């Protein structure tokens, strides 16, 4: 199965075969992932009932907290990524036999939507050794490896190292760089800088954030956050935001633009649909509902994920509205906040 999916990911000219690939993956995971098979059977759905990728039963993200959603025995899984477990204290677990497809998906998606250049990279997030169960820490490590040898992390066991970041930027101000980080990490940086402070950066550099910053000490609206980001880092290109989840193996991307609907788009091996939470049926385009992902890079867990995110399908991408009412905040900004509050400059 891995060989088939790898070929599909590496060949965008075959994107019209998505449905066939999705059905193959569903059949494979139905046969090899016992908990997923039981989930489908409880809904009276078997291999013969699924004829289109939209028919594939979607597992709620909450199921990752209790079920063993893996086609590979636990002892043969080389990596487990875990969610933040913010409200219940129980973390969801995403089991990976290996990370070959995960890494390929991350790198090719980033190259398609952000940049295919290898740039010096500053990362405002803890490294993989400090957060071994964080999918974002691993994702950023992939991007760091794709960058230049002098790429660095600036959130360590000491917290956010502002002085080191400034020194690194000074040394690189004659060449484009890329600044990557959780959204909350940038908020923490803003609060550490003096009023109106501008950091030295080449104007052709790139800015990249992921996650959000609601429910934290200082709440930014999207426009004010990106205005602040661009005032601290005065670059020519608008920042890119990444939407990802521990339960997925592929990311979506949005380039920020003022006064425009921000649409999230992904590479050809992931699709989405928007459903009515009451009926589970797909809603009409342009109407809000719950977001469901079908991710072909999820070759060891489940092919379809039902989120607690509200979204609107615009045909060429989805607009993220936020979490369902009373839904717990999720994601990498939670992890960044927890880390920074536990480690001081």
From TrEMBL:
> Which Pfam families is this protein grouped with?
LuxE
What are the Acyl-protein synthetase LuxE domain coordinates in residue numbering? 14-335
What SUPFAM superfamilies is this protein classified in?
Acetyl-CoA synthetase-like
GO annotation terms (biological process): bioluminescence
* InterPro entries (UniProt xref): ANL_N_sf, LuxE
MF (Gene Ontology): long-chain fatty acid--protein ligase activity
Q: What name does UniProt use for this protein?
A: Acyl-protein synthetase LuxE domain-containing protein
């Amino acid at each position: 199965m891995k060989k088939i999916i790898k070929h599909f990911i590496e060949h965008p000219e075959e994107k019209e075969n998505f449905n066939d690939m999705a059905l193959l993956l569903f059949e494979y995971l139905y046969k090899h992932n016992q908990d997923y098979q039981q989930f489908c059977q409880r809904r009276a759905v078997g291999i013969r009932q699924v004829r289109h990728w939209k028919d594939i039963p979607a597992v709620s993200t909450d199921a990752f907290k209790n079920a063993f959603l893996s086609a590979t025995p636990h002892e043969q899984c080389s990596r487990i990524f875990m969610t933040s477990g913010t409200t219940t204290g129980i973390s969801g677990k995403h089991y990976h036999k290996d990370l070959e497809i995960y890494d390929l998906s991350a790198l090719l998606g980033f190259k398609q939507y952000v940049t295919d250049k290898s740039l010096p990279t500053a990362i405002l997030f803890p490294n993989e050794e400090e957060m071994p169960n964080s999918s974002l820490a691993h994702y950023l490590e992939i991007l760091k490896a794709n960058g230049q040898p002098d790429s660095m992390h600036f959130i360590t066991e000491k917290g956010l190292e502002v002085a080191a970041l400034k020194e690194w930027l000074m040394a690189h101000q004659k060449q484009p760089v890329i600044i990557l980080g959780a959204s909350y990490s940038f908020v923490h940086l803003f609060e550490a800088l003096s009023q109106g402070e501008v950091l030295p950066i080449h104007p052709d550099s790139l800015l990249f954030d992921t996650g959000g910053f609601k429910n934290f000490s200082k709440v930014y609206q999207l426009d004010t956050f990106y205005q602040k980001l661009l005032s601290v880092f005065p670059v020519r290109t608008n920042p890119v935001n990444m939407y990802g989840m521990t339960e997925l193996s592929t990311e979506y991307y949005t380039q920020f633009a003022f006064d425009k609907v921000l649409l999230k788009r992904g590479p050809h091996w992931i699709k989405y649909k928007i459903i009515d939470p009451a009926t589970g049926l797909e809603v009409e385009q342009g109407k809000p509902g719950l977001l469901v992902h079908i991710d072909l890079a999820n070759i060891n867990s489940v092919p379809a994920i039902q989120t607690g995110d509200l979204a609107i399908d615009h045909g060429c991408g989805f607009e993220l509205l936020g979490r369902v009412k009373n839904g717990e905040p999720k994601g990498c900004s939670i992890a960044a906040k927890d880390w920074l509050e536990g480690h001081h400059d």
